[in-house]
Amino acid sequence: MGEAKRRKETGAPPPRKPKDRKPLYAGLGVIVLVLVAVAVFFLAASPDPSSDELPVAAPNADPFPAQLDRYGISVGDSDAPVVVREFADYECPACARFADASERLKEEYVESGKVRFVYFDLPLQQHDNAVPAAHAARCAGDQGAYWEMHDELFDMQTEWSGSGNPADTFSRYANDLGLDERRFRRCMDTDLHIDDIEESRRVAMQLRVTSTPTVLVDNVRLTRPGWGQLSAVVERELND
């Protein structure tokens, strides 16, 4: 007996068709995209420099010990009125996102002499390739291309972060930047800058900095590292 004839004779209702969940999934996807867009907006939007919502230095906070800057990599006028310091890990995804803000900082404030920027290496133990990446940047720096390699490492983070042999990838970046690849590789193979990286890490420990990215504008620690809060606090410090 056919299924339709059986239902007609027995009075059984037709089987329910499974619900199409595609509209539900599509709706959820749209909600997620909206939430991401909102988060990006709040990180990028610049508050008013006079806003009470901006972070301030802790009461009776001492100035940042400027003598420690020699353990980081600095760019900008040594007499700039404001100093921005970042403690970061090249394998940290949040640090890669902040890299866009630091690049914009260099273009809009460092080049004009208003800000000096200091980058401190703080490779985290859970990131196997963080130390080799920090080493790659410093080895490129020996050939005058520290910031170019810094930017490349963050731009291409997903390519090398899970690699079992990141040195080959870093050598390719060095070659793309026009560096002497043999000199670069020798620097990497001999761990030439391992002590410098460790000194930078010790600075972070001394200051009780444990997370990345940690960004300080003079002695004010950002609570939402991103261009919006960064630029607003810089403007406030310049106007004080």
What are its keywords?
240 residues, alpha+beta, five-stranded mixed sheet, 10 helices, globular
Biggest sheet, open or closed, and with what strands and sense?
Answer: 5 strands, mixed
Structural class: alpha+beta
User: How far is it from the N-terminal to the C-terminal residue, by CA?
Assistant: 89 Å
Number of helices: 10
Counted beta strands: 5
Structural summary, described in words:
There is one protein chain. The protein is an alpha+beta fold. The chain contains ten helices and five strands; from the N terminus they run H-H-E-E-H-E-H-H-H-H-H-H-E-E-H. Strands 1-3-2-4-5 form a five-stranded mixed β-sheet, sandwiched between helices. Residues 36-44 have low confidence and may be disordered.
Give a quick summary of the entry:
The chain has helices at 3-10, 22-44, 93-110, 130-141, 146-155, 157-160, 166-176, 181-189, 194-206, 227-239; strands at residues 73-75, 82-88, 115-121, 214-217, 220-221. It has 240 residues and is an alpha+beta fold. The protein has a 5-stranded mixed sheet with strand order 1-3-2-4-5, with helices on both faces.
Topology of this protein?
Elements: H1 3-10, H2 22-44, E1 73-75, E2 82-88, H3 93-110, E3 115-121, H4 130-141, H5 146-155, H6 157-160, H7 166-176, H8 181-189, H9 194-206, E4 214-217, E5 220-221, H10 227-239
